[in-house]
Model the fold of this input.
Amino acid sequence: MPKATNTDDSDDGIQIDLISGERMDELATMEKIRMILDGVHDGNIVILEEGLTPDEESKLIETTMAEINPDGFNGIEIETYPKSETRESSLLGRIMGNEETAAKLTVIGPANRIETLHKDETLISALVSRN
Amino acid sequence: MGLFTELKDSISRVTDRLFSEQEPKRIGIYGPPNAGKTTLANRIARDWTGDAIGTESHIPHETRRARRKENVEIERNGKSVTIDIVDTPGVTTKVDYEEFTDEMDEDDAIRRSREATEGVAEAMHWLREDVDGVIYVLDSAEDPITQVNTMLIGIIESRDLPVLIFANKIDLEDSSVKRIEDAFPQHKTIPLSAKEGENMDEVYESIAEYFG
Done:
């Protein structure tokens, strides 16, 4: 599978990786986390169409902590739309065993380059700096 | 009451006692940095055992290792529960050593940030593997709708762990318990000031009732 990589022009701008739910579905937990953190280490903004499960989020925090380095990487900024209660508890969802669906748009970036300005149930507004 | 019911209740009481004597429930105190987790853990431990658990500080990430106080027996209104209190480092997704350089020199700030990251990872590991219930502590003077709070409550819910939300620091002028109740309406919220000891009766009643 091709990896999202920085182009030669990356110093001139900010790369945004929009990753589909379909692509994430093919990956194991650590592959997902690696894909996210590799992108963030490169200074990219990673947008996940369908987010992560709570367990994956827990492992993302743990792995992020292990990679924080006073010389450069301060961690991540992450924002997710709140889960829809109606979707979570829908009868169909429960019948299909989808109670823990992670279908929530998630934005992840380097903590020193992305700052959340505003967030509500329908909008995430972020300021992304170049350094 | 029939003989069978009496026998069943008697067996249930014995097994409950055996279970509680053998394995006190481990209750993790979780929350973001500077919510007052260690102040609360110390308040509970001092009230019921006479000892403190850890050092309190206004500087974030004072607690950088999970610490357990074993066999804390809490009794309220005829209900009793024996728990191990696990005071955990505040959870975050970022740690910048420069946050600490106003309070200490650069080497100490770097060391503190390294220990803080290890502490957060440790806290997450405890949450996934080793706690039976959670007290989630929030600073009621701060906005509770943050990504860390949302993620952590989601992680706790996904593991089916019982959780009580403690709206701490109600002694502060900007405190708003309602803001926390509105943010997490699916959980019981108890207002308190761990520092001033306000509303601790309700705190202990809730712990004995909920985790007992």
